[in-house]
Amino acid sequence: MNYFIFCVVFIFGLTIGSFINCLIYRLYIGKSFLRGRSFCPKCKHGLAWHDNIPLLSFFMLNGRCRYCRRAISMQYPAVELITAILFTAIFVLEVERCGGIAMDLMLFNCSFAQLLKLLRNWVFTFFLIIIFVYDLRYYLILDKVTVPAMMVALVFNLTLADDMTVSIFWLLAAGSVAGGFFLIQFLVSKGKWIGGGDIYLGFLMGFMLGWPQILIALFVSYIVGSVVGIGLILSKRKTIKSEVPFGTFLSVGTFVTLMRGDWIIEKYLNLL
């Protein structure tokens, strides 16, 4: 039974990953994701249901469109697989937080708050993957993604809060610290260091994580960004003046903190 639940969650993640791919492309071309069937981005031919099976269709078609035979971007299977892995990892982590009970008993033994937290983390991860991929591919963080995500983050976290008055203060404080941090950089550099989308993403990070976890997320983001940046410069794929999609690193830092922020803070305090 455990393996069955595990597979269901994994397949659910693959399906969400497929939807994320569709959403990213339609956001890019300005087309609604609520209408119209899926189609090949290159030849625009409508896709049959068996061409749209998450992950499997890519391998069944040998990575090429059935109709125009042009290569399908590796983004599609990669996003589907990564989303499935992350969703499954989140599920397993929440099982552990429920006392390590069997997966098939989780839905019955966990409290409503624990199940809501699982849903919250899935939804937050959904938004973070969109931001990560879109910024990595198009060097842009869309306000039409971050602004709705802010509202969703506040609703989830305030619903889970023990004291709503105290929680909304710390959520707004965390958002203001991160958003203000990027706003100062934007003003000082006149938009050369970061874009306006990073400011909105800073607020979103704060609303998702609260205080003091937002500090951990910023620290992790800059560490990851520095390591990757130095690696790209040393490999001569980028120069010191090259534009970097920093939203991708902020997304990683936010996800890491969402999953293990309390553990990181605990380990840090033990070192003091």
UniProtKB/TrEMBL annotation:
PANTHER family given in the database record: PREPILIN LEADER PEPTIDASE_N-METHYLTRANSFERASE-RELATED, TYPE 4 PREPILIN-LIKE PROTEINS LEADER PEPTIDE-PROCESSING ENZYME
Protein name: Prepilin peptidase
One GO cellular component, as annotated: plasma membrane
GO terms classed as biological process: signal peptide processing
UniProt subcellular location: Cell membrane
Membrane topology: Multi-pass membrane protein
Gene3D superfamilies: 1.20.120.1220
Keywords linked to the UniProt accession: Cell membrane, Membrane, Transmembrane, Transmembrane helix
The keyword Cell membrane is annotated on this UniProt entry: yes
